[in-house]
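Justification of resources, computational component.

The compute hours requested in this renewal are based largely on the per-chain cost of generating structure records like the one below. Each record pairs the submitted sequence with a full structure-token output. That output is archived, and it is also reused by downstream analysis tasks.
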Amino acid sequence: NAACVGLKGVNPRCRPQETAYHREYFYIGGRYVPYPVLGGNLVYDQLYVEKLIPTGGGVKQPYPLVFFHGGGSAGSVWLQTPDNRKGWASYFLDRGYVVYIVDQTSVGRATQEDLPGYPLRIGSTAEIAQRGFTVPELTNAYPQSQLHTQWPGEGIIGDPIFDAFAAQFIPLTTNLTRQELSMRASGCELLSLIGPSYLISHSIGALHPILLSDECPQLVAGNINVEPATIPFQSYTGNATSAVGRTPARPWGLTNTKITYDPPANAPTDLKKLDNETDTPALRSCIYQAEPARKLPQIAKVPYVALTGEASPHITYDQCVVNYLRQAGVNVDWIKLGEIGIHGNGHFSFLEKNNLQVAEVVEKWIMRT
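The structure output for this chain reads:
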């Protein structure tokens, strides 16, 4: 119904597409910190969590699902698509899962009162979203972009679906060390309360399931990552050449804070790095460990899968994450959607026209593990 597309869906006459569910919310973790200016205490480092339970057929699955959003967005991104179709939360509720959706510490409803400790930066501009997410084929920064067909609508400013998507962008913190430490503590506390769960993440949100797999692997049933942005030792901002669009990042390989290696690494400088690959727009070069590589014994305890769209920028560099983990002894499944007959997807496959088809791939992986 064109009258209910995008922001028009707020009209009371528009019928919602989401599955019916019971909803509760919680703030998990956190600690009291004295705040002398006001003569009292503030709570820092808490995680916002929504709990959704299906009302139709009830709970049928033994393990809950916990959803982690990417950068510049909040957990609400999992509820519905920008053109008001059913999102992944509803898909899995229909199949009898209890669904937990988090706003990561410092973001959205987990915004922190520790203003100096969680400084913020701009999440994204509309133009960045167009180039990287909704119409990468127009910029043509990498050849696979020309395969992109799945974004609903025109994908540019002025299109009601794009405008609804761009309106979701929110700031994110620049203190990634502080965020990682608080997500480790509050995330494992959440899992200790709800039991072993599958963690589903998108983009830079994939950082947090890695941390929880290292910190409390016994509580992680599986680690499902839609286009993980935990590129070893660096960040990509575009797809040009090795001299453009990359900056040093994640000194511990996949993270900004210490993770468990074997033999132990006491400092990032203990990790010997190797980068001797050719870098092209179609296949970006990666930094790996020099052999013999240290292993990641905690993370290796958790089944791991990455999903990559054939037209996304990530199809040019997700091999960096996959191969780094494999080199470190982690058993990784890498599902390239194009190779299993799911074509045309960009970075936000869980919002695109075939989003439920991609969700079905995730469900089948869960059933196999």
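The longest strand covers residues 21-35. The chain is about 20% helix and 20% strand.
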